[in-house]
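Late entry, evening session. Most of the bench is empty. Finally got around to the prediction I had been postponing all week. Sequence below, unchanged from the version circulated by S.P.
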Amino acid sequence: RGDSFLILMNAREYLVPFRIGSRQREIEWTLLLDTAAGFAPPQPAVYPHMAEFPLKPHSLAVLQPHPSALP
C-alpha cells in the first residue's frame, strides 16, 4: 500500500482557508511543500485533524497524513 498525500492548489488572488480532515480523527497532517515559501524549505508544521490551513494566493501545498502522537 502506497503513501497518501493531500495536494491543495489555489489559483485565486486571495488566501483560501482550507479545513484539513480525514475519516480517522487520530490523523495529523505534516506540511511537505508550500510554493508560497519560494525556494526556502517549509517550516516544520503539523496540523491536527480539522485544522484550518491558510492556502496562500497562487500557491500549491502538499501535506502527508500520519497517526497522531496524542491518544
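Two things to note before I forget:
DSSP finds no helices and six strands in the chain.
The two ends are 24 Å apart (CA to CA).
Will write this up properly tomorrow.
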